[in-house]
Design a protein that fits this description.
With about 550 residues, this protein is α/β, with parallel strands linked by helices. It contains 14 helices and 12 strands. The chain has a domain of about 100 residues. The radius of gyration is 23 Å and the shape is globular.
Amino acid sequence: MRTRPPPPATAPRSPTPWPRPPSPPTTTPPPAPPASAWPSSAAAARSPPPAPCPAGSRPSWRRPSAAIPSSPPRPSSSSRPRPFPPPKPPTTSTSCWRPSAPDRPGRPRAHPRTPVPLAVRPRDHARPSHHPVDGGELRLIGFDPRGVGRSTPVTCGLEPEEENWLRPYKEATFDKDVAWAHDVARKCREKSGATLKHITTRNTARDMDLLRAVLGEKKVSYFGYSYGTYLGAVYTQMFPGRADRFVLDSAVDPARAWRGMIQWWAEGAEPAFDRWTEWAAARSERYGLGDTPKKVDRTFWDLVQRADEKPIEMDGEKYTGDDVRGMMRGAVFSVKEGTELVVELKKAAAGEPASAKRLPAPAGTTRPAADADVPSDNGTAGFWTVVCNDNSAAWSRDPESYRRDAIEDKGRYPLFGDFASSVKPCAFWDRSAEPATVVNNEVGSLVVQNEWDSQTPLPSGQALHADLKGSKILTVLGGEGHGVYPSGNACADGGVEDYLTTGKLPAKDVTCEATAGSNGDARENRKRDVLPGAPLPQRSPDRF
């Protein structure tokens, strides 16, 4: 069993950004074989027309209720997606959002559903708006990105077991994993055909600009979470003169799209694990995991070894050491959640009563699409389609290179390194139709980032901030969870709302401190697998 190095005596308040890889190549070679797909979202629909809202009210989002049958005009040659059999146009939803731009009431805001619905009602306990509101209204526009939901949903015809994609490296099963990756690529190509290569972030950015044109607006404002931050960044690069107020919450580093972002899950888990050992050690009398970080570390890895030798049983389920590592990767970003996981596993291993209800889903598991009109594997199919199509140059065509990377990264990042670096369907995907987008511009935007984010670690947000040279970054120190706004944190929420309602970025980068309440909300959202403010689950675990 590998012993992890002892963690530092104190966890840093502001982690130093990890080394960033060189920018992806901007040229792409000819085609090779394929794989499977990405972002999940419920179908968009239309709510009643926006109505005036009471003065002083906060943003009020409504879930859509009926599909829009309209067919938008063809885009100009500068923004038209590359030719292919035309898919159904993205469906949209409108809803009243009271805070309007003081200089122009009624300005629309485009809001892609990537991968969460954007026209939803905030939680009932949401606090009042921090801002007085002028007359007028804003329209929130949500849409299913191409390939997702009801916007020509892609499918690979995958069985549930084929959707389990985060696979730990084992010498005995690696050849099977390679065969799985090859089969997923082949099935996606066969099922979705010629449409497949046109499902890319760049084309979705063109679709966004088409929506802007249909609305008759010169500029569009935008709020994107997770993958939506990359889409927003790509839009600013392709259409810099048409971007107004852009909020990018829990940000993707464009230079690491996409293999590098998945690998960052492993890199980011290590400092989070060290922070967790310190937290649990300081509460050893309550949790009994060890009174020093080193002892807490040993307790965890002893559990992993025990589960490798004999799976731990709980509520009729068996958990291997790989299951334990995979679950801990996401849980450890919340010190309380990580502690609860280890406590329950420790009790079960000792034959004591324990509950699997406190455990997260094993790494790589998925949920089927909620909409009956959408293929059940659309979330996974859409994921791979974007991840592989956006930048095929990031993915080696040599399966043995994945074996080497998985072995090396399991040593460097023992919690999750082999999961992140082992073979994926993109190794057998067709070459990208366009070069990867290099983001480097002066467009103004607000990057919003928690310090302890399991999917897009803090250095990822810092990297996007560096690429968007006109941006400011709002960092929540001690903030846990993937997705910041709205969290009930007056500093963070106020900073976002100030920018959206006035259009003025802060004069310098902003640092907020997390509160017990905002981190508590993040834990509850993670248990339901939602982003802030969303009352329904919208994405599978282990997605951007």
